Amino acid sequence: MVIKEQFDVVLGHDIFSETQTVMLEEDRFKHELLIGPSKQELITFAALPRIEQDIEKLVSGEPVGIFILSEDLELMEAIEAILIKHKVSESMIHNLTPLYTTQIATNPLAYASISDAMTNGGIVLVHPSKSIDPFFRFRLVDHFISAFSMCAFRRSADEKRIPVFLMIETPLVYKSDEELRSLLMLGRRYRVGLCLIDHSFTDSPMTTSIKRDIYY
Asked: What CA–CA distances, in Å, run from 98 to 91, 137, 150?
């Protein structure tokens, strides 16, 4: 199978038929749920290849908003290594964690970074580390999801919306139930695709209503 769209993503290769398994760009806006035997395998074999393919296209001049919300330190470090490998300009990288942890209230600088990445392309990193007090970790996640939603839904329909992909690896996001449901239900219209990593689907705090809006 040959990649046809700008932001199609290769999921794997069939060694017998020597063909690629590809998810089309339009299908990525239907949202994904990655489930597997362990979180580490999901990150290594599913999450990182997706992220790197989008970063390669961003560097080549194709505008895309890449957003990562993860409490996994190894994932964040692996992404930083990919950014160095592909020599991504610092102007395209927005690490919002320091902004949110020093000022837990909604931060205008964080909002500006999110809006810029959605308009011009870039990568936004948010790492709610487990070393942060649980109350403030949830506030960080909740404020980010709220700001992300606001920026996504405010993009003018008159201008060509660049594709935006948000990968989420933290169960805390399910506490922001209303915001997350809005993104899942309306995201496709605004060219926003979500990818949730949840290795324990049966024990997930994800509500039934959220599960209805995801392909897995």
From this structure: 16, 12, 21
- Report which residue type is found at 112: A
What's the distance, Cα to Cα, between the start and end of the chain in Å? 21
CA dihedral (176, 116, 75, 137) in degrees, to 10, reads -40
Sign of CA pseudo-dihedral 186, 197, 138, 109: negative
Residues 119, 90: Cα–Cα separation, whole Å: 17
Q: Give the integer Cα–Cα distance in Å for 144 and 178.
A: 14
What pLDDT does 117 receive?
Answer: 96
Q: Which two tokens stand for residue 64?
A: 């895309």
**Mind listing the domains of the chain with CATH numbers?**
31-211 (3.40.50)
User: Contact, 196 vs 214, CB < 8 A?
Assistant: yes
Q: H or E segment at 192?
A: strand 192-197
Residue 53, helix vs strand vs coil: helix
Q: What is the DSSP letter of 162?
A: P
CB atoms inside a 10 Å sphere around CB 170:
22
3-state secondary structure of 104: coil
- Residue 170, CA distances (Å) to 5, 55, 70, 108, 174 in order: 30, 22, 6, 24, 8
Per-residue DSSP letter, 203: G
d(CA 50, CA 197): 12
Could you say which residues of the chain have pLDDT below 70? 1-5, 99-107, 157-159, 176, 199-216
Give pTM, 2 decimals.
0.86
Contact assessment for residue 180 and residue 173, using Cβ atoms and an 8 Å cutoff: yes
